[in-house]
Amino acid sequence: RSLSYFSRGERRNHYVNFAESKNVYTYTPLLNMLMHKTDSGLYQSVNYKGERKKDFRFDLVTGSGTKGQTYLYWQGNKLFQMPVSYFTAAGQWANSPGFPSDRVMFDKPISTRCLECHATYVSLLSEPDIKNEEFDHRNMILGVDCEKCHGGGAQHVTFHTAHPEEKKGKYIVSYASFTRQQQLDMCRLCHDGSIKKS
What we know:
The chain has helices spanning 112-118, 146-150, 154-162, 180-191, and strands spanning 3-5, 24-28, 31-38, 41-48, 51-57, 60-62, 68-75, 78-81, 84-87, 92-95, 108-109, 119-124, 135-142.
């Protein structure tokens, strides 16, 4: 799934390496980030001059882990990207895309533009397109599931539960009904590679 919760500190897949000596990203000789697991969750901790200064809990993960993963944390109703991501091919932690490599930055906000591709649905609490949008934690469909492309599924499920003999999908968007251009446009919403993130 594209976006999912971490639960009770357990990793959701086998890709990420928290092993000692493999769980550090070094910015400078005096500054590094330690990725570690505790009973209360997974954390990125800022270490400066050998002293642990601040801990940030992994709240959400984006990416399946096949190529890599990046992590998000909640601050109230606002979401922020964490400064260190995991890159599977290299088998190591590195600064998150677009982040500086010589200093720690924890204030990169996650916007609806990010979540358009990495979640199925989020309920926006604030005005759209402000610098730090706010989201309803309890009203999100994480990951990219059927409803992302096929529309809301409640009526579909209700109908087919009551009519299990009906094999043709009802009350969902069907790609078969789209023209070739519409099918390409739908996929291109997330996959054309040219979306500019705000």
